[in-house]
Design brief:
Layout (H helix, E strand, L loop, with lengths): L9 H13 L5 E5 L6 H13 L14 H7 L6 E4 L10 H12 L8 E5 L7 H12 L5 E7 L7 H5 L2 E4 L5 H12 L3 H10 L4 H9 L2 H16 L5 H7 L5 H20 L12 H10 L2 H17 L6 H15 L6
Parallel strand pairs: 1-4, 1-5, 2-3, 3-4
Helix pairs in contact: 4-5, 7-8, 7-9, 8-9, 11-15, 12-13, 12-14, 14-15
The structure holds zinc ion.
Length: 332
């Protein structure tokens, strides 16, 4: 049972617990921020706290009381969760209507009635408008918690009726420490994972479980072979077909920038892939820097094309051919 928020969520937790203790918790909370920051974890800890009958001093659910027991078996009558039936689908309006009528009945255990809506950006116009009524005329002792990773996709009328709570990226040291403990990696790898994950700790943990560090090292080895003419772009693309093209393009962009940095300085102040430095250094010495700049632009364009109906394997092949050309000898 989730009882505590993540260490980087302490400020948000204290704020809400304070207001809960004072009896001034807003009836609608909008927890927002980029994916991978642990909003769902936080929301679960908060729901458990609200429905616990014997909260600890820090506000954590006790894990023992009747409320906690019901939560553990996923059967608390005062908790309603609204989510799409399937990932990517919208939250249906009849679910919101059912919720509104359920909330008119008082709580089963004379505590809070808690509603968790996730992800809130999946409310379509009709269901959002239906929810508005509930937000405008809240029933007593009701707390609605909305989770959202893309706040710009949420109707402004919904946004303005919720107390917004932002979840930002944690301080790097804090995120690294957590990742070292929870992903079983050492500090430089943790830093590398966080860089790849846009500083989102849970995304970094996912990447680690997916073996991203090894995958990157493997690909770079193959790119060496490509530069030496020992493999063809088609062969590399074939070997890497299980990895998302978007990820490969991101890595190629980082390595291109790193090659430029290493070309001008043996010890550049910043490097995207410190874990692959030994492998990048010799490439940086052989490369034609003007071509790398142009290649970098092409990667940006390729990334944009990924949002369209482009043939992704073909696009990857073209970018690998582009990589090969970075190392081609100039005609004299
Ligand atoms: Zn409890």
């Amino acid at each position: 049972m989730i009882q505590h928020p993540y260490p980087w969520q302490a400020a948000q937790w204290q704020l809400l617990q304070q207001r809960l203790a004072q009896g001034t918790l807003p009836h609608a909370l909008l927890l927002y921020g980029a994916q991978g920051m642990g909003k769902r974890h936080f929301a679960t800890a908060l729901v458990n706290s609200l429905l616990c009958e014997n909260r600890t001093e820090s506000g954590a659910a006790c894990g023992e009381c009747r409320g906690c027991q019901l939560l553990k078996v996923g059967n608390h009558p005062d908790l309603t969760q609204l989510s799409p039936e399937e990932e990517g689908k919208t939250i249906a309006i009849d679910k919101v209507r059912q919720l509104s009528s359920k909330l008119t009945i008082s709580s089963q255990y004379s505590g809070y009635k808690v509603v968790l809506i996730t992800p809130a950006e999946q409310l379509n116009i009709a269901s959002a408008n239906s929810l508005l009524k509930t937000l405008e005329e809240p029933t007593p002792d009701t707390i609605l918690i909305l989770l959202c990773s893309h706040i710009d996709r949420l109707l402004p009328t919904i946004r303005s009726r919720c107390q917004k709570v932002l979840f930002n990226a944690p301080q790097p040291e804090q995120a690294e420490r957590w990742l070292v403990e929870h992903a079983g990696v050492d500090q430089p790898v943790a830093a590398q994972l966080l860089a790849l994950a846009g500083s989102a700790p849970l995304r970094a943990q996912q990447l680690s479980e997916g073996g991203v560090i090894e995958q990157r090292a493997d690909l770079l080895k193959m790119l060496h072979a490509l530069a030496r003419g020992e493999m063809s772009p088609v062969q590399v693309a074939e070997r890497e077909k299980k990895i998302a093209v978007a990820d490969i393009l991101q890595w190629l962009s980082g390595w291109s920038m790193d090659m430029i940095r290493l070309h001008f300085s043996a010890h550049p102040p910043h490097i995207d892939s410190p874990d692959l430095l030994d492998s990048l250094r010799p490439l940086a010495q052989q490369v034609d820097v003007q071509r790398v700049y142009r290649y970098f632009d092409k990667l940006i364009e390729a990334n944009r094309l990924l949002q369209t109906q482009v043939n992704q394997p073909l696009l990857l092949e073209q970018m690998l051919i582009g990589w090969l050309r970075l190392f081609a000898k100039r005609r004299s």
